[in-house]
Structures are given as structure tokens and as C-alpha cells.
Design goal:
The complex is a heterodimer of chains A (122) and B (106).
Chain A lengths: L2 E5 L3 E2 L5 E8 L9 E7 L5 E8 L4 E3 L7 E6 L4 E6 L8 E8 L8 E4 L3 E5 L2
Parallel strand pairs in A: 2-11
Antiparallel strand pairs in A: 1-3, 3-8, 4-5, 4-9, 5-6, 7-8, 9-10, 9-11
Chain B lengths: L3 E4 L2 E3 L6 E7 L7 E6 L6 E5 L3 E2 L7 E6 L2 E6 L9 E6 L11 E4 L1
Parallel strand pairs in B: 2-10
Antiparallel strand pairs in B: 1-3, 3-8, 4-5, 4-9, 5-6, 7-8, 9-10
Chain lengths: 122, 106
């Protein structure tokens, strides 16, 4: 059974850096085809894709946020970390990590973590 | 970049109704289109991937169709647990953009 869980601060000040950790079980991020992505949802807004890291350490970022994001993985710990710099109140959102469906020829997120709410405020 | 537009933005329907939600891409995305269901306070759930593939465990009343720029999610007979917000997402371009969502209400 695949499970993912996000962890990190619930409150961050503007201009600070946010570090979120996705801890997962039931798969290895070194298995070909595997990926872990991050998606967020601001209050009252639609889902927004942020980034993904693949089994071969290839990374993709949302073009609109690329300069502020970094994604990495620790295979031994079964963790994927997302870092976002220069936080703004507009970054207040629930942040989800999700598992990429290996069988699909493109990015499909079949299992999601429960999400973690992050508030950006002074 | 590729924009995804869903219609309608909200929809009122009754149990047993057949419902169709549309998603249009601003340019060709082949069939790299996913549909998710999201209920308040819950985790988004994958329904359909690659335009028409039903995710394992999802009831067969859900179906997807389309290719290129126009896609449709159909619920053949609404059940009480189907009232939620539905999102399409393209994964053809780097933005992996979601639509703005369609809120399905009783």
C-alpha cells in the first residue's frame, strides 16, 4: 500500500524559506518510472502543480515558480523535500505531495498525501 | 502556456442525473488529460487518466473522453457521494496546468 505524508511548518513569515518534507512508504523513488510531485491549493482557489522529481533524479518545475523552487530526494530515507524561497502571503495554501502512476506515459498522480496547511503571515 | 478552461464552473444536479463536465485546452495536448475529484477536507482522488482510462477502484459510472483540445467527464448516474469539485489537468506541457474546477452541487 502506497502512503505519503507531508510535514513542515504551519506558519512562515514573509520573505522566509519554506521547507516541506514528503515521507512515503510502499514504493521506492529509485524504481524506474516512479516520481513524486507537489501540488498546492490556496483557499478558495484551484489546484496548482508545483514540481516533480523522477526516479532518475530528473526534475521539473512550474514555469511560474521555477526560480523559487527546489526539489530533492533521499532514497534511503524515503523522503522528497520541496523548498520554496521568498514566501509571500499568496503562498498560503495546503501543500500536497503525490505519487506518480508508473503505468502512465505521462504524469498522473494516483495517490496523494493528506496535505499540510501553510500560512504565510508576519 | 497552455490554459485549461472547464465548463460549467458550477452545476446543480440531482441523484440519478447524467452529468457532463467539459474541459478545453488552449492548444493541442493529445490525450494527456487527467480528471480528479476533490471533496472539502479530503484528499484529491484520481478518476480518469490519459483522457479515458478509469483509475482502479473508481466506479464505472465515471467515464472520460476526448483528445486534442476538447475533453469530457461524464457521470452516468449521480450518487450522493459524487457531489464534489472536479478538476481536469493537462500534463502535456511543463505547466501541468489544472482547470479552475467545476463544483457539482445538489
Amino acid at each position: 500500500q502506497i502512503t505519503l505524508k507531508e510535514s513542515g511548518p504551519t506558519l512562515v513569515k514573509p520573505t522566509q524559506t519554506l521547507t516541506l518534507t514528503c515521507t512515503f512508504s510502499g514504493f521506492s523513488v529509485s524504481t524506474p518510472g516512479v516520481g513524486v510531485g507537489w501540488i498546492r491549493q490556496s483557499p478558495g482557489e484551484a489546484l496548482e502543480w508545483l514540481a516533480i522529481i523522477y526516479w532518475d533524479d530528473d526534475k521539473r518545475y512550474s514555469p511560474s515558480l521555477k526560480s523559487r523552487l527546489a526539489i530533492s530526494k533521499d532514497t534511503s530515507k524515503n523522503e522528497v523535500v520541496l523548498t520554496m524561497t521568498v514566501l509571500d502571503p499568496a503562498d498560503t495554501a495546503t501543500y500536497y505531495c503525490a505519487h506518480r502512476l508508473v503505468a502512465a506515459p505521462h504524469d498522473v498522480f494516483d495517490v496523494w498525501g493528506q496535505g499540510t496547511m501553510v500560512t504565510v503571515s508576519s | 502556456d497552455i490554459q485549461m478552461t472547464q465548463s460549467p464552473s458550477s452545476l446543480s444536479a440531482s441523484v440519478g442525473d447524467r452529468v457532463t463536465i467539459s474541459c478545453r485546452a488552449s492548444q493541442n495536448i493529445n490525450n494527456y488529460l487527467n480528471w480528479y475529484q476533490h471533496k472539502p477536507g479530503k484528499v484529491p482522488e484520481l478518476l480518469i487518466y490519459t483522457a479515458s482510462n478509469l483509475q482502479s477502484g473508481v466506479p464505472s459510472r465515471f467515464s472520460g473522453s476526448g483528445s486534442g483540445t476538447d475533453f469530457t467527464l461524464t457521470i452516468s448516474s449521480l450518487q450522493p457521494e459524487d457531489f464534489a469539485t472536479y478538476y481536469c489537468q493537462q500534463t502535456y506541457s511543463l505547466s501541468r496546468a489544472f482547470g479552475q474546477g467545476t463544483k457539482l452541487e445538489i
